[in-house]
Design a protein that fits this description.
The complex is a heterodimer. Chain A is an alpha/beta fold. Chain A has ten helices and eleven strands. In chain A, helix 1 packs across helix 2 and helix 3 runs parallel beside helix 5. Chain A is globular, with a radius of gyration of 17 Å. Chain B contains six helices and 14 strands. Classes of the chains: A alpha/beta, B alpha/beta.
Amino acid sequence: MALAKRIVPALDVKNGRVVKGINFLNLKDIGDPVDAAIAYQNAGADELVFLDISATLEGRSTMIDMIERVSSAVFIPLTAGGGVTDLASMRAIIKAGADKVFLNSAAVANPDLIRQGAELFGSQAIVGAIDSKWDDVANMHRVYVSGGTKPTDLETMAWAQQMIQYGAGELLVTSMDTDGTKQGYDVALYQALDDVIDVPIVASGGAGDLSDFVAVFKSGRVDAALAASVFHYGEIAIPDLKQRLHHEGMVVRL
Amino acid sequence: MSKENPFIAVIDYGAGNIRNVMKAIDYVDMPAKLTKDPAEILAADGIVIPGVGAYRAAMDKINTYQLLIPIQKAAANGTPILGVCLGMQLLFDSSTEFGETKGLGLIPGQVVTLPQKQGFKVPQMGWNQNNVAIENALTRGVKDEFTYFVHSYYVKTDVKYIAASVDYGVQVPSIVIKNNIIGAQFHPEKSGEVGLRVWQAFADMVSDKAVIA
């Protein structure tokens, strides 16, 4: 049987706290990452992604402490990243209990970092994260870095293939064209990726309602769908989403 | 009859992330010691062989630390042993990973690479659904449930040892049991509530509250 399609809530973390908090249980906002992670585990999330948006070194060490606390209380796969620039921080994140670490801007600056990480921790632990935006003039999907603020010369499909060659075991691809729109995932982007790569793809950006998840899973070979605000603010409850996908004939972990 | 102050020895062979295994055992309130001390391993009421990494490197470490004999002795004494992921694969006779490597030889069988098949990426990485063939206190908790897998190799063994399996183009044993020797191909410490049931069942076995086989 095919593996279950994964539903992956993403949490932005700053200085060890969940940014803005989550309130999908109609409770007071949960700002503590451990409480938030437990709530998501109980709701049926298949994996959690933590994005560190702390700008300071102090904030980063708080992140490591946070991963330790989360992995002591939550027993589903955890992925963490954001501002990871060297092997030492990758080691710290994995040692703290994360199963995977994702690399974005630092991998563009130094692709060998992917190889070093894959060699030390295995490809399964290294996720290549890509922020991609359609460029009408150049007629290509363009890779952006620094939280989507800086364009690069890289074309998304080519960079995706390179990341895999360097040893990334999974790709987390955010479409900047759909991110924040709530108009659905960038299905065309993932279909194009599916043609050139053979590692799991995590789709990110654009989830608005249940049918968006159905569409992205049905259209291409996407293995997981990541979303943030629709989960955090209770617009989509994960059990409802899983039921819907199940009724659409998809394999999900109910 | 329950044992007094039982504890689990978690084999420390330096490979992979053992922290999550320790936390899961802690979660089910069973004391655990991370150790490579042969005397401590022999004295333990239960043994966990964790596993992330490569087969040969793991066996090299086990041989270097001279843990082969103590583990085999404990197995013969009836001490419950749980191998997780690579740790399960180590329970068998040998693996073809990086040439032929001898394993612990506690269950007859070989470890071979997952075949390349359309629609089944290698490694198998994600949640797959268990089909239970042999029902007992340990497998009941995973019956028809999804557990989390990350592996490129799988076990070929006699059907009588396959307590549960998942379909991944081939039948992949997910739980193997031979008397007091148990292996889980998935990561029970990463399989949510279902995985914690496995740890609880093993802890019960260690403290003599339950008999699995």
